[in-house]
Specification:
A: Aldehyde Dehydrogenase, Chain A, domain 2, 6-stranded mixed beta sheet, 22% strand, B: Aldehyde Dehydrogenase, Chain A, domain 1
Chain lengths: 502, 503
C-alpha cells in the first residue's frame, strides 16, 4: 500500500491543502514499486525538498503493460465505443477544471512556473486539449475507396493497443495531456512516465482518472528515471507505439531501442533553435512583445523558444532598445512563482541552471557581447536573469545549440534571401516566428522556413486543433489536431471480394 | 564512361535486343563509380549463368547523388515545379513504360525468373498503373484550414521532405520501384534509389525512360550497390530527410538504427510476413483453393504477403488437402523456362535463396512435419524448387514461425473462429491475411480481429494502387498506396497567421 503526502499552501495566489498519493498508479490502483526506490521533489524557487515520490523500474512497467493489455481486450479499445471514451475524456476535463487551482499550485511548486502563466497556458490548455480530443473520440474515420465493381475496399483506423508516453519537465501537465488525450480518444491504453523531476501533477492527474471512471489499466502512471523506466518502455515487446517529448539526445535512444526490439512506431517531439525574424516593416511595438514572449516565456524552457532573433538592420537600433527594456523589466518581475507580480520564475533544477550558466560563459568566451542579464538572480533557488547576447556569429555555441533557458542570441540581417538561409542553417526545425506587415513577404518566408510550425506576427500560440511537430532533427510525427488521430492509430485495409471469380 | 551491354533474346515469348547501361545514373547522366573497381555479376536464376556485369557504387557516389538531388530540389523540382507539371511527367513516364512493356517483362523474366506473361500482366502493367495513379495525385496534395478563432488564420501545408532515399528488394524489382517513385515524385521529392544488387536491370532501363519523359536532372538518381555499403550510406546520410525501405525485417532494423544514430530521418519500412490464410467450412471451396494457391505460390512464394500459414476448418480439411495437393502438384508440372508460354512456376531468384529455402524444408522434416508434396529441387539447372506442402505441423516449428520466402505452405487444422483468430495472431508479423467464408458477418468480424495491415476476404494478393498497404507489428511502419502515400512522403507544417491579437 503506497503513501500519501499532503502539501500545504498559504500564499497570495493559492491557499489550501493538496493530498497526493506518491506511489505508482497501475491497473487503477496505487501500488508500491516492486523494488523500493524514491526521489525527492525539489522546489526550484528555494532549492528545498517538498515531497518524496516512489520510483518504478522495468518490473513495474511489465505490470503496467499487462494491466493495459487486459484493459485493451476487455474494457477499452474497440470494446468501448468512441462516444463512451469521449464522455470519460470530457468528464476528466471537467474535473481538471474544477481542480484547476490545485493543478496550478502543483506546477508552480514543482516546476517553478509563475502561477498566473501556469493557470492559463499550462492547466488551461491541458483542459482544452482533453476536451478537444474528447470530441474526436467518436469521429475516427477510415475511407471507402473505389477500385472496381467486384470489390469493396475500405480502411479502418485502429488503435495500436498499448502505447508508451514519456513526458518532460518543462510543461509537465500540458505535455502529459498532449499524449493522453489523443491516445485515449482513439482507443489506446497508455503507460506514462512523467519526468522524475516534476512528477506531482501526474500523480494528481491519476486520481482524477479514477474519479472520472476510466476502467482500470487504461491509464497507468509509472514514475521513474529515463534510463530505467523510459528505457523499459522503449524496449518493451508488448508496447506497440511510444511517443516521447524531450531532448534530441534521448529521442535518438528511443528510436534505437525500437530498432533493436519490436520496431514499435515512434513519435518524437524534440529540441529546437527556433528563429524569430523581424523585418523592418513590422509593427515594432507588437513585435517586441511577441519576440520577448517567444524566448522568455517559461524561463526559456520551451521547445519552441525563439532563441535566435534575426533583426533587419534598418530597424535594429529601435528593436534593441525596446527589447532590452522588456528583458530588463521581466528581470525585475522575477521572484516567487506564487507572488502575483512574478512573471519570471526559476529554472527547473540545479542541473538546468548549471547548463544554462555554462552556455552564458561560452557566449562570453566566444566573443559575443553580453547586452543584458547573464547572471544569477538572488541567492536562493535557480533564478537566472533574462539574458541577451548581441554581436553573435553563426558558429558560436550559443547560436547553434539549444540552451533551454532565458538567453536570446541576436543577429542582424540585410535581405529576405539571406535571413531565410541563415534561419534554415540548423539541424533543428520546430518553429519560427515572422514579423512583417507585408502579407506576401510574411507568407513567402513562412513557407520557406524549414519548420513544423510557423507563426506570423505572433508566437507560442499553440492550439489543440493545429498540428504540431518537428522538421529535421526536431522530431518525427505530429501531435494536436486531427493529425494526432493518425499518430495514434494504424491503418488496416480490408479488401472484400464481391464477385471476382478465378 | 560506363558502357552498355546488349542482351539478345530469342524466345517464344520475346524476340529482340535490349541494351542496358551498366553504370550509375546521377544528375541525369550515366557515370562510373568514384572508386571504379567493383562490379556485380548478374545471374539468370533459370540457368545459374551470368547475364552481364554492372557497376557497384560506394558512399562517395551516394554523396554525389545527394548533391545532385538537392540542387534539383532547389531549382527544378519541389516547389519550383507545379504539381500539374510533375503529374504530366509521371503520366508520360507511365506511357513510355507501357510502350516498352515487352522489354521490361523480358528483363524481369530473365533477371528474376518470373514467368514472362505474369511479369508482363502483373509486374509491368502494375507499375504502369501505379505511376499513372500517382501522376493524377500530383496536383491534389492538400492541407487543411483549421478554424480556431476569428483573430487567427491557421492552415497546414503538406510539404515534400526534399531528398528521399529508397531501397528496394529483388522480388518485384520494377513494381517495387514504381511503388516508391510514384508517390515520392508526385509530392515533389527528389530520390536516391538503390535497387537490389541482384536484380538491377529493370531499374537501369527505367532510368532511360526517366530521361525521355523529361524529368530534370537530379530528380531521380539510381545507385546500384550492396546493402551494407550503399544502403547504409543512404540510411546514415545527414542530408537525406526520409528513407523508405522494402525488404527483410532484419535489415529494416538496421535502417531504423542508422536513422537514430544520424539525423533522425523519417523511416518507412515494408518488411516480412507470415500471413495466414483461413478457410472456413462455409467457404466456396473451389474458389478458396484457387485463391489460396495464388496467395502462397505466386512469384514462387517470394512475396511479402505470401499466405504461408494455411488454416483449414476440420470439417473440410480432408477435401481441402486432397484438392490443394493436386493443384500444387499440377503447378509443379508447369515449372520451367520463364520464357515458355506454359510455365507457371519459375526458379527462386538466387543460389542463396535456394539454399535458404531448402534449409527450411530440411528443418520441417527434422522437426517432424510431413512433406505432403514437393520438398525437393526441380531439375538440375537453375534454382528451381518444387511447390511444397507440409502437414502435421505445430506452432513451435520453424517452418510455421519464420518467413521462408519460398514455395512452401504449412497447413494447420482448426475448430472454432476464436481459436483460429488467436492462432493466426500469434506471430510478431502482421502484414496480410486472407479469409474464406460466404458468411458476411463472419468474414468481416474475422478481418477486423486479425492484426494485419491488409485483410483480403474471398481473395488474395489483390493489392491495389488506391488502397493503403503496410504492416502491423514487425511487418512494418507506415503506409504506401492510395492517398495515404501522400502523407508518407510529405511533412506537415502548421502556419498560424495573427489577424488581430494584440498584446
Amino acid at each position: 500500500m503506497s503513501h500519501q503526502t499532503t502539501l500545504e499552501f498559504n500564499n497570495a495566489m493559492y491557499k489550501g491543502s493538496i493530498s497526493l498519493n506518491t506511489g505508482l498508479f497501475i491497473d487503477g490502483q496505487w501500488v508500491d514499486p516492486v523494488e523500493p526506490d524514491s526521489i525527492y521533489v525539489i522546489n526550484p524557487a528555494t532549492g528545498k525538498k517538498v515531497a518524496s515520490v516512489s520510483l518504478g523500474s522495468s518490473k513495474d512497467v511489465d505490470l503496467a503493460v499487462k494491466a493495459a493489455q487486459k484493459a485493451c481486450k476487455t474494457s477499452w479499445g474497440l470494446k468501448c465505443p468512441g462516444t463512451q471514451r469521449g464522455k470519460l475524456l470530457a468528464r476528466l476535463a471537467d474535473l481538471m477544471e474544477r481542480d484547476a487551482d490545485q493543478f496550478t499550485a502543483l506546477e508552480a511548486l514543482d516546476a517553478g512556473m509563475p502561477f498566473q502563466f501556469a493557470k492559463a497556458a499550462n492547466v488551461g490548455s491541458s483542459i482544452q486539449t482533453l476536451r478537444y480530443f474528447a470530441g474526436w473520440s467518436d469521429k475516427i474515420q477510415g475511407k471507402s475507396i473505389e477500385t472496381n465493381e467486384t470489390k469493396l475496399a475500405y480502411t479502418r483506423r485502429e488503435p495500436y493497443g498499448v502505447v508508451g508516453g514519456i513526458t518532460p519537465w518543462n510543461v509537465p501537465l500540458g505535455m502529459l495531456c498532449w499524449k493522453v488525450a489523443p491516445a485515449l480518444a482513439t482507443g489506446n491504453c497508455i503507460v506514462l512516465k512523467p519526468s522524475e523531476m516534476t512528477p506531482l501533477s501526474a500523480l494528481k492527474f491519476a486520481s482524477l482518472v479514477s474519479e472520472a471512471g476510466f476502467p482500470p489499466g487504461v491509464v497507468n502512471v509509472v514514475n521513474g528515471y529515463g534510463t530505467t523506466v523510459g528505457q523499459a518502455i522503449s524496449e518493451h515487446m508488448d508496447i506497440a507505439k511510444v511517443s516521447f517529448t524531450g531532448s534530441t539526445l534521448v529521442g535518438r535512444k528511443i528510436l534505437e531501442a525500437s530498432a533493436k526490439t519490436n520496431l514499435k512506431v515512434v513519435t518524437l517531439e524534440l529540441g529546437g533553435k527556433s528563429p524569430t525574424i523581424v523585418f523592418d516593416d513590422c509593427n515594432l511595438e507588437q513585435t517586441v512583445k511577441w519576440a520577448a514572449m517567444a524566448i522568455f516565456v517559461n524561463m526559456g524552457q520551451s521547445c519552441v523558444a525563439g532563441s535566435r532573433i534575426f533583426v533587419q538592420e534598418g530597424i535594429y537600433p529601435q528593436f534593441m532598445e525596446k527589447f532590452t527594456a522588456m528583458a530588463n523589466g521581466l528581470g525585475q518581475a522575477t521572484g516567487d512563482p506564487f507572488a502575483p507580480t512574478t512573471q519570471h520564475g526559476p529554472q527547473a533544477s540545479k542541473a538546468q541552471y548549471d547548463r544554462i550558466m555554462n552556455y552564458i560563459a561560452s557566449g562570453k568566451a566566444d566573443g559575443a557581447t553580453l547586452h543584458a542579464g547573464g547572471e544569477r538572480h538572488g541567492t536562493e533557488g535557480y533564478f537566472i536573469q533574462p539574458t541577451i547576447f548581441t554581436d553573435c556569429k553563426a558558429e558560436m555555441k550559443i547560436v547553434k545549440e539549444e540552451i533551454f533557458g532565458p538567453v536570446a542570441a541576436i543577429l542582424k540581417f540585410k535581405t529576405e534571401e539571406e535571413v531565410i538561409e541563415a534561419a534554415n542553417a540548423t539541424t533543428y526545425g520546430l518553429s519560427a516566428c515572422i514579423f512583417s506587415e507585408n502579407i506576401s513577404r510574411a507568407l513567402r518566408v513562412a513557407h520557406a522556413i524549414e519548420s513544423g510550425s510557423t507563426f506570423v506576427n505572433s508566437a507560442q500560440l499553440i492550439d489543440p486543433a493545429i498540428p504540431f511537430g518537428g522538421y529535421k532533427a526536431s522530431g518525427i510525427g505530429r501531435e494536436q489536431g486531427e493529425y494526432a488521430l493518425e499518430t495514434y492509430t494504424q491503418v488496416k485495409a480490408v479488401h472484400v471480394n464481391i464477385g471476382l471469380e478465378i | 564512361m560506363p558502357g552498355t551491354t546488349t542482351l539478345d533474346l530469342d524466345t517464344s515469348s520475346f524476340k529482340g535486343s535490349i541494351s542496358i547501361n551498366t553504370g550509375l545514373f546521377i544528375g541525369g547522366k550515366w557515370c562510373d563509380p568514384v572508386d571504379a573497381h567493383d562490379h556485380a555479376e548478374i545471374i539468370n536464376p533459370s540457368t545459374g549463368k551470368k547475364i552481364m556485369d554492372i557497376s557497384l557504387a560506394s558512399s562517395k557516389d551516394v554523396d554525389l547523388a545527394v548533391k545532385a538531388a538537392h540542387k534539383a530540389y532547389k531549382t527544378s523540382w519541389g516547389f519550383k515545379c507545379p504539381g500539374k507539371e510533375r503529374g504530366k511527367m509521371l503520366l508520360k513516364l507511365a506511357d513510355l513504360l507501357e510502350r516498352d512493356a515487352d522489354q521490361f517483362a523480358a528483363i524481369e523474366a530473365l533477371n528474376v525468373g518470373k514467368p514472362y506473361h505474369v511479369a508482363k500482366a502483373y509486374d509491368v502493367m502494375g507499375a504502369v498503373e501505379y505511376i499513372r495513379y500517382f501522376g493524377g495525385w500530383a496536383d491534389k496534395n492538400q492541407g487543411n484550414v483549421i478554424e480556431t478563432n476569428e483573430a487567427k488564420l491557421a492552415y497546414t501545408r503538406h510539404e515534400p521532405y526534399g531528398v528521399c532515399g529508397q531501397i528496394i528488394p529483388w522480388n518485384f524489382p520494377l513494381l517495387m520501384m514504381s511503388w516508391k517513385v510514384g508517390p515520392a515524385l508526385a509530392t515533389g521529392n527528389c530520390i536516391i534509389l538503390k535497387p537490389s544488387e541482384m536484380t538491377p536491370l529493370s531499374a537501369l532501363k527505367f532510368a532511360e525512360l526517366v530521361v525521355e519523359a523529361g524529368f530534370p536532372p537530379g530528380v531521380v538518381n539510381i545507385i546500384n550497390g550492396y546493402g551494407p555499403v550503399v544502403g547504409q550510406a543512404i540510411a546514415e546520410h545527414p542530408d537525406i530527410a526520409k528513407v523508405a525501405f522494402t525488404g527483410s525485417t532484419l535489415v529494416g532494423r538496421k535502417v531504423m538504427e542508422a536513422s537514430a544514430k544520424s539525423n533522425l530521418k523519417v523511416v518507412t519500412l515494408e518488411l516480412g510476413g507470415k500471413s495466414p490464410t483461413i478457410v472456413f467450412d462455409d467457404s466456396d471451396l473451389d474458389q478458396a483453393l484457387k485463391w489460396t494457391m495464388q496467395a502462397m505460390y505466386a512469384n514462387m512464394g517470394q512475396s511479402c504477403v505470401a499466405g504461408s500459414r494455411v488454416f483449414v476448418h476440420e470439417g473440410i480439411y480432408d477435401e481441402f488437402i486432397q484438392k490443394f495437393s493436386a493443384m500444387v502438384q499440377g503447378l509443379g508440372q508447369t515449372a520451367g523456362d520463364p520464357f515458355s508460354a506454359n510455365t507457371m512456376h519459375g526458379p527462386q531468384v538466387s543460389q542463396v535463396q535456394f539454399d535458404r529455402i531448402m534449409g527450411y524444408i530440411d528443418s520441417g522434416k527434422s522437426e517432424g512435419a510431413t512433406v505432403h508434396t514437393g520438398g525437393e529441387r526441380h531439375g538440375t539447372e537453375g534454382f528451381f524448387i518444387k511447390p511444397t506442402i507440409f502437414t502435421d505441423v505445430h506452432p513451435e516449428m520453424k517452418i510455421v514461425k519464420e518467413e521462408i520466402f519460398g514455395p512452401v505452405a504449412v497447413v494447420l487444422k482448426f475448430k472454432t473462429e476464436e481459436e483460429v483468430i488467436e492462432a493466426a495472431n500469434a506471430t510478431t508479423y502482421g502484414l496480410s491475411c486472407c479469409i474464406f467464408t460466404e458468411n458476411i458477418s463472419r468474414g468481416i468480424r474475422v478481418a477486423h480481429a486479425l492484426e494485419n495491415g491488409s485483410a483480403f476476404i474471398n481473395s488474395a494478393q489483390l493489392v491495389d494502387h488506391g488502397v493503403p498497404f503496410g504492416g502491423y507489428k514487425q511487418s512494418g511502419i507506415g503506409r504506401e498506396h492510395g492517398e495515404y502515400a501522400l502523407s508518407t512522403y510529405t511533412q506537415v507544417k502548421g502556419i498560424h497567421v495573427n489577424l488581430g491579437i494584440r498584446l
